[in-house]
């Protein structure tokens, strides 16, 4: 949204806070950007890397089309109309549905590209009506993101050391709840500041997004091993760090998120974890390592000291 009055700016801040409080997504708010890029560049970059699009259309004035045409109508912000058009174009070319919530002040007319879109904005007369509806929409967006009856996506975080500095090791884990899946993929998107300490080439790195580096594993990189029922599989591992950053860079990156997405057949999964949360996590006492494919338990056996408990082919990692 483009903010003209203090009330509109407060609504924009409230929308961003609502999104961050929800815990799944982060929010781009042009009003708070502090850098030397042009505002248009910030907006275009943000739209290109977004998973969702929230637009609020306030009245911006009356427009007349001449005495022989229709009656005058109220127009929304020209900026907003342009951003809606750009978002629609990005969705069409990327073939990736944007999560969308649209709000329109009562009286704003229908014009431009909106005449061709199924935007279905919620009309409102008071800004106070926007936040309750947005909270309900965010809950519906989250409910199907990382887990459903067919699969589950998780992100494990463990401390380690790499290149002489302390790092956090990120491991997306994909679990299929059906009998067998032969086609699957997982993409890990990380703010580039977190990984630029390591200059080694990573064969899993794919095309970057603005300010992000992307790593992807598929059934091909996993030697076409299928996903088996209830068998958690580590898709890839990537180290991240902040020890090498300046204080200003640390502040910047701790406001960003790590984004994980996965596909199992036609089903899509995603989750978002804030960098602040990743680097605030404490030291785990121990864990059972998830292997590529879970190995069957050995039977109970009797040794010289009597009956022993079942033992499994897991490595216990102490960190």
Main-sheet strand order equals 10-11-9-15-16
Number of helices: 6
Share in helix: 10-25%
Report the order of strands and helices. Answer: HHEEEHEEHEEEEEEEEEHEEHEEEE
User: Class of the largest domain in CATH?
Assistant: Mainly Beta
CA gyration radius, whole angstroms: 24 Å
Total domain units: 2
Shape type: globular
Low-confidence stretches: 283-289, 291-319
The span between the termini is 46 Å
- Which structural category fits the helices and strands? alpha+beta
The third-level CATH topology of the largest domain is Immunoglobulin-like
Q: What would you say this structure looks like, in words?
A:
This protein has helices spanning 6-22, 39-48, 78-94, 130-143, 247-253, 275-280; strands at 52-57, 62-63, 73-74, 99-105, 122-124, 151-162, 165-176, 180-181, 184-191, 205-209, 212-218, 227-228, 233-234, 238-240, 257-264, 267-274, 287-288, 302-303, 306-307, 316-317. The chain has 319 residues and is an alpha+beta fold. Helix 1 (6-22) runs parallel beside helix 4 (130-143). The chain starts with 5 loop residues before the first helix and ends with a strand.
């Amino acid at each position: 949204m483009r903010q003209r009055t203090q009330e509109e700016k407060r609504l924009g801040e409230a929308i961003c806070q609502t999104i961050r409080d929800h815990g799944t997504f982060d929010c781009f708010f042009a009003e708070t950007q502090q850098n030397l890029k042009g505002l248009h560049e910030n907006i275009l970059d943000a739209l290109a890397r977004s998973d969702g699009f929230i637009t609020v259309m306030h009245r911006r004035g009356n427009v007349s089309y001449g005495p022989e045409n229709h009656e005058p109508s109220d127009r929304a912000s020209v900026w907003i109309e342009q951003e809606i058009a750009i978002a629609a174009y990005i969705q069409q070319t990327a073939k990736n549905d944007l999560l969308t919530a649209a709000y329109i002040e009562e009286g704003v007319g229908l014009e431009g590209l909106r005449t061709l879109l199924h935007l279905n904005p919620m009309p409102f007369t008071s800004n106070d009506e926007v936040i309750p509806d947005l909270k309900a929409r965010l809950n519906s967006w989250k409910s199907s993101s990382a887990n459903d009856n067919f699969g589950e996506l998780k992100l494990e975080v463990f401390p380690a050391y790499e290149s002489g500095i302390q790092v956090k090791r990120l491991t997306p884990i994909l679990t299929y709840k059906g009998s067998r899946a032969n086609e699957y993929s997982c993409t890990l998107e990380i703010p580039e500041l977190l990984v630029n300490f390591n200059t080694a080439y990573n064969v899993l790195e794919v095309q970057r997004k603005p300010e992000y580096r992307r790593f992807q594993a598929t059934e091909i990189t996993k030697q076409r091993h299928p996903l088996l029922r209830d068998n958690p599989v580590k898709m890839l591992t990537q180290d991240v760090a902040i020890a090498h950053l300046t204080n200003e860079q640390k502040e910047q990156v701790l406001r960003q998120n790590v984004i994980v997405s996965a596909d199992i057949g036609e089903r899509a999964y995603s989750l978002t974890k804030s960098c602040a949360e990743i680097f605030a996590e404490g030291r785990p006492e121990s864990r059972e390592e998830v292997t590529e494919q879970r190995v069957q338990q050995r039977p109970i056996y009797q040794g010289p000291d009597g009956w022993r408990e079942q033992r499994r082919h897991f490595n216990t990692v102490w960190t």
